[in-house]
Amino acid sequence: MKYYTPSSLSELNDLFLQTNNSKITILSGGTDILPRWEEGITLPKHLIDLKKINSISGIVEHDNKIIIGALTTVQDIYKSELIKTKYTALHQAASQFAGVQIRHRATIGGNICNASPAGDLLPGLYVHNAMIELTGPNGTRKLPINKCITGVGKTTLNNNEIVSAVILEKTEELSVFYKLGLRQSMAISVVNFAIAYRQTSPNLFDLQSIAAGAVAPTVVYLKEFTKAVNEGLPLEKAISLIEHDISPIDDIRASADYRKTVLKNLLTHKLKELYV
Amino acid sequence: MIGFYLNGKPVFGEFNPGTTLFDYLRDQEIFSVKFGSEKGETGADSVLLDGKVMNSSLLLMHTIDGKVIETIESFSQGVDVHPLQEAFIEEGAVQCGYCTPSMILAAESLLRENPTPNDDYVRESLSGVYCRCTGFVKPIQAIMKYATSREDR
Ligand SMILES: Cc1cc2nc3c(=O)[nH]c(=O)nc-3n(C[C@H](O)[C@H](O)[C@H](O)COP(=O)(O)OP(=O)(O)OC[C@H]3O[C@@H](n4cnc5c(N)ncnc54)[C@H](O)[C@@H]3O)c2cc1C
Ligand code: FES
Questions:
Q1: Is A55 contained in some domain?
Q2: Are B53 and A100 a contacting pair at CB < 8 A?
Q3: Torsion of the alpha carbons at B58, B59, B63 and B68, rounded to the nearest 10
Q4: Is B17 helix (H, G, I), strand (E, B) or coil?
Q5: What residues in A contact B130, CB-CB < 8 Å?
Q6: What is the pLDDT of residues A58-89, one digit of tens each?
Q7: How far is A109 from chain B (nearest CA, A)?
Q8: Above 90 in pLDDT, residue A205?
Q9: Mean pLDDT over residues A198-221, rounded?
């Protein structure tokens, strides 16, 4: 294994051109990659560590946007006042993410590129319509998060592209995140979801979108359900509409039926909390 | 060739690809760093990297170039007991002791960020360490006791 530490995006692009066509692995925090090696997966031929590229780390405000660099850690997200007040679902996801040790190391770019259906930062990014900035030798492009992640562990990144940033529009929308794990910390989500909503008057909410994780190969928007609730259908009636958008599976953490039932119950419960 | 500080002393060396800081530290007979799983699930392998608590088994040697690494050995210098360690002893927060170095490093990491923590903050600081004998009540008491005694000074 050859190890590279580019210190700028242009050095990274040069490396991509040099190592053309050979097997490259990108390393950020390594909290997904290293456990995989321990399971016996062979080391890659080229390992490119992004951590010295300072320009893709940290949270900055820009006109009507906020830009979260790909290397920003889960702990940095958790500590950010801006994220806590404007993108609460992301703050809440970070607060329930692993333990402090992992949070200090794990990055937002890694959470996206790992493309786990249970990735905890993802539902918040979906409901806030995050745009993902991809960078490589051919330039920079931007994709909505749901066009960037396409399946379990699958993204639309080219071989010589990295996620360089996450871009969020400033909005008046509020959001919440909820996670059910098998215990309180250090647990992968059995289901998780985020809700974005607008407060139209003191007691009235307009749901913007709901995204749920671990109930399909990727995080999914619960579109039919959201629409029905906004049109005034009582929650108890509307809730079965989530089945249009989900396709849960059985695994070691939970059965498909359990996931469906628990998502229905938790979502109803959370929305009732919002509507009190 | 990479270089870093380990408990205050500079270290330079070449390391095989894939070698983790955990492997290296155990090789150096720094036995406070314990095996839990290779996946950072138990937190028993904790170290401080630039003052922040992390899992040494998830850190490749190559990625600690230029960094400052601390283990519990640097707290006591092998002789004196650090006041935070003393608080653990006084509060009965140590049974088998397997998790204790990591608990103390986790506490230290968060105390450097917030010297006057409340109970919830301390509780959260320990969320990445598993203790299978003492539990968390006594360690939390020990950390709170230490934090308040520092404030009083
Ligand atoms: C004990 C433990 C607990 C965990 N708990 C949680 C949890 O509660 N919630 C949760 O969601 N996850 C959890 N995880 C999983 C993991 O920590 C997260 O997915 C994390 O966000 C990954 O980030 P990283 O920087 O460590 O990624 P890495 O391991 O460095 O990379 C992950 C993948 O993304 C690719 N990659 C990384 N960065 C980029 C980039 N910028 N551009 C292109 N490709 C890139 C890598 O090649 C790799 O395939 C846990 C892991 C462990 C070990
Ligand atoms: S004291 Fe034994 S594991 Fe914590």
A1: no
A2: yes
A3: 150
A4: coil
A5: 186
A6: 999 998 999 999 999 999 999 999 999 999 99
A7: 17
A8: no
A9: 91
Residue-wise pLDDT for A144-156, tens only, equals: 999 999 999 999 9
Instruction: Evaluate whether B103 touches B138 at the Cβ level (below 8 Å).
Output: no
The ipTM assigned to this model is 0.94
For each of the domains in chain B, give its residue range(s) and CATH number, in order of start.
2-74 (3.10.20.30), 83-151 (1.10.150.120)
How many Cβ pairs closer than 8 A exist between chain A and B? Answer: 81
The closest ligand to the CA of B60 turns out to be: 1
B49 phi-psi bin (left φ>0, alpha ψ -120 to 50, beta other): beta
CATH number of the domain within which A192 lies = 3.30.390.50
Q: Is B48 on the interface with A (CB under 8 A)?
A: no
Is residue B50 less than 8 Å (CB to CB) from chain A? Answer: no
Give the whole-angstrom CA distance, residue A62 versus residue A67.
7
Q: If you average pLDDT over residues A25-29, what whole number do you get?
A: 97
CB A147 within 8 A of CB A156: yes
Does residue A254 or residue A29 have the better pLDDT? A29
Which tens digits make up the pLDDT trace of A92-134?
Answer: 999 999 999 999 999 999 999 999 999 999 999 999 999 999 9
Best probe residue, ligand 1, of A43, A56, A113 (max atoms within 8 Å of C-beta): A113
What is the per-residue pLDDT for A185?
Answer: 63
Give percent of chain A above pLDDT 90: 81
As for how many domains chain A has, the answer is 1
Q: What is the residue range of A193's domain?
A: 174-275
Q: Which residues of A19-57 are buried (b: 16+ CB within 10 A; e: fewer)?
A: beeeebebbbbbbbbbbebeeeeeebebbbbbbbbeebb
For residue B34, which ligand has an atom nearest its CA?
2
Tell me which amino acid residue B81 is: V
User: Residues A30, B63: contact at Cβ < 8 Å?
Assistant: yes
Pick B17's closest partner by Cβ from A43, A51, A102. A43
Mutation test of the interface with chain A: which of B33, B58, B62, B129, choosing the one with the most A Cβ atoms within 10 A? B58
* pLDDT, position B72: 95
Place of tokens 């210190």: A7
Share the mean pLDDT of chain A.
93
Q: How far is B58 from chain A (nearest CA, A)?
A: 6
